[in-house]
Amino acid sequence: MINWIGIAAINMAIAVALGAFGAHGLKGLVDEQQLAWWHTATLYWFVHALGLLLVGILVRLNYATQATAWLLQIGVIIFAGSLYAMTLGAPRWFGAITPIGGTLMIAGWIWLAITAFRLGKS
């Protein structure tokens, strides 16, 4: 079984590092729009890292499935990764993949809800 709690902790460390880089390393190098993309990406990374921590605990307790964790992890990488890439110079059309990540994150939370409702019936 994958250690989602450990992966969540790594995600939190990444979010802190990327947040610090955005706050200190990008000032004066990118415009306001690009900095806003970076901040949005970092916010979502933090929130979903915390969510993944909770999901990791729920997986260990058999109240959630690994599918939820995978959807959240892949979703945040695609969502935030595309915003980070555009901030660092990727073409704006690259943002077309951002909603794919968002959709995967939504699917992860919906899958958690479905799992919870199913468990509540048994």
Features:
single chain, 122 residues, mainly alpha, 4 helices, 80% helix, elongated
Describe the structure.
The chain is 80% helix and 0% strand. It is mainly alpha-helical. The longest helix is centred in the middle third of the chain and has 29 residues, at 32-60. The model has no long low-confidence stretch (mean pLDDT 96).
Write the layout of secondary structure elements.
Layout: H1 4-25, H2 32-60, H3 66-87, H4 98-121
Helix pairs in contact: 1-2, 2-3, 3-4
Structural class: mainly alpha
State the assembly state of the protein chains. single chain
* Portion of residues within helices: over 70%
Termini Cα gap: 24 Å
Q: How much strand?
A: under 5%
Arithmetic mean of pLDDT? 96
Rg (C-alpha, Å): 16 Å
Task: Give a brief description.
This protein has 122 residues and is mostly helical.
